[in-house]
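Hypothesis: this fold can be encoded by more than one sequence.
Test: take the structure tokens below, design a sequence, compare later.
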């Protein structure tokens, strides 16, 4: 499934609970136009580590930008999230940087009059916690039209349990990307159809795979060399020989395709994304997790399933929808009343499963998966159905 950010507004228009235009009175509720914006919050991560973060501006001069032909190099923004020494001196990083946030809030329904975007739990430039030595690295790829912060609730949980997560903005495929100096580059992909063999989508996956390969190579270069070192001593704690990847929607497809293309990734996870290109026919020999929404209607999944020759699981989280695997799962219940959205509208967008529960289940299963394949820890919740997690259906598994 490929869904753009503009698709989101269709299901939750800013109306009152009675369906009247925003600003009209509804029974016992102040007119929406006169209510304060809701300050959104992210759920606190559950692990023992404090969080730090640092953004990097990378430029791949071996490639012209594939979406904007006039640009001589492919520019990316990535963000490193890492376990840090506990500190209150540095500011918390915003969920989205200032100029990008302004662009983001001009579209969809999280307009500034309805919602104030949150801060994360990571502190900018915090001192890395070196007591655990070098730590496994997990890459994150966002969905089509989304951005590197789209699944921050999942990213922060992994970091709080001792992983380093590198989130990638795929420029011009992302809704908006802010570069140093406040320059914002907006979405610029050409139109495409919903067909699996649409050349624009196939190109997008190839571009994302090249982005992923370049990010890993650039991190290796910075860890090994003295030129352009990583900030805040991060080079001392990255274990780039143990690297995994996950993503939502087209980001999940990116993880699978990057592995099939030989990018050195030891395990991958796809959160409700259709698969595209050669990986569907070629398959994978490394561990791969498929976790879907309630509908689970992606034709590429049963096609690739017999070609997944390593450890594999196919899970369905009942009561969820496509964007349940993003921070919209936690944001939308907070802002629904301000938008005037009905319970039915909310359920159509993120599903009827309680949002807190949905996020908790996702966090637990994703952490268990990476603990199993990056640290060799036993993961009972991945071995089969459990009464502790009745929402999770095991559609298939091996290994």
């Amino acid at each position: 499934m490929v869904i753009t950010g503009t698709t989101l507004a269709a299901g939750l228009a800013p109306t009152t609970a009675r369906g009247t235009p925003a600003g009209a009175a509804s029974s016992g509720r102040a007119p929406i136009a006169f209510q304060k914006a809701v300050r959104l919050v992210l759920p606190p991560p559950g692990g023992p580590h404090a969080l730090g973060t640092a953004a990097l501006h990378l430029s791949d001069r071996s490639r012209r930008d594939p979406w904007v032909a006039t640009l001589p190099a492919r520019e990316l923004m990535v963000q490193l999230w890492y376990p840090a020494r506990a500190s209150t001196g540095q500011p918390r990083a915003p969920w989205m940087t200032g100029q990008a946030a302004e662009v983001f809030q001009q579209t969809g329904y999280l307009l500034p009059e309805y919602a104030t975007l949150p801060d994360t739990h990571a502190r900018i430039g915090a001192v890395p916690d070196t007591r655990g030595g070098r730590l496994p690295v997990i890459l994150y790829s966002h969905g089509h039209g989304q951005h590197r912060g789209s699944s921050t609730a999942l990213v922060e949980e992994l970091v709080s349990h001792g992983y380093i997560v590198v989130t990638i903005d795929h420029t011009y495929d992302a809704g908006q990307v802010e570069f140093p100096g406040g320059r914002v580059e907006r979405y610029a992909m050409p139109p495409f159809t919903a067909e699996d063999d649409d050349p624009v989508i196939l190109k997008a996956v190839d571009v994302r795979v090249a982005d992923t390969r370049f990010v890993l190579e650039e991190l290796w270069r910075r860890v090994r060399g003295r030129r352009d070192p990583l900030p805040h001593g991060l080079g001392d704690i990255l274990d780039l020989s143990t690297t995994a990847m996950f993503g939502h929607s087209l980001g999940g497809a990116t993880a699978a395709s990057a592995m099939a293309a030989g990018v050195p990734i030891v395990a991958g996870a796809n959160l409700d994304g259709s698969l595209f290109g050669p990986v569907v026919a070629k398959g994978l020999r490394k561990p791969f997790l498929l976790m879907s929404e309630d509908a689970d209607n992606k034709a590429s999944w049963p096609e690739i399933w017999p070609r997944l020759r390593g450890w594999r699981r196919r899970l369905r989280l009942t009561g969820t929808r496509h964007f349940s695997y993003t921070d919209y799962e936690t944001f939308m219940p907070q802002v629904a009343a301000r938008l005037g959205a009905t319970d039915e509208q909310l359920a159509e967008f993120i599903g009827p499963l309680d949002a807190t529960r949905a996020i908790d289940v996702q966090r637990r299963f994703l952490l268990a998966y990476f603990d199993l394949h990056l640290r060799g820890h036993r993961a009972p919740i991945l071995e089969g159905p459990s009464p502790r997690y009745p929402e999770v259906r095991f559609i298939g598994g091996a290994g």
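The CA atoms of residues 192 and 200 lie 6 Å apart. The chain is about 25% helix and 25% strand.
Hypothesis status: open.
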